[in-house]
Specification:
124 residues; mainly alpha; 2 domains; two-stranded antiparallel sheet; L-amino acid transmembrane transporter activity; membrane; transmembrane helix; Amino acid transporter-like protein 4; AminoAcid_Transporter
Length: 124
Amino acid sequence: MMIPGDIFTLIDVFSFAAWLFYGSTMGAVLVLRYTWPNAPRPYKVPTFIPVLVLIISAYLVVGPIVQNPRIEFLYATIFILSGLVFYMPFVAWKLRFKWLVSECFLCFGSSLAIDGEFVQKVEG
């Protein structure tokens, strides 16, 4: 399964996943740069840097699969994509359960931040 037999397999799978996320981040930087050109940015980088990192990350993700295809890379990809099962309903579609929110109030005290707004629990 996903538990590697040696440290080198663990390093390969971790590097694959890490560079996949680095490439995704650089792709998002490029998309946001051209879709929202005037948005305030906390820091700015020249365009060639995200493009260069995106090319390098694409090479470091595709290279090990082409050179030595292993089932662990497929497992890592499926594991990463399985996060969409929780992202889509709870973040993208903002699905909320009332009982879960009340349980969170019990866990976090008398106030809770939901969707960026500070919500107070009404006693009574």
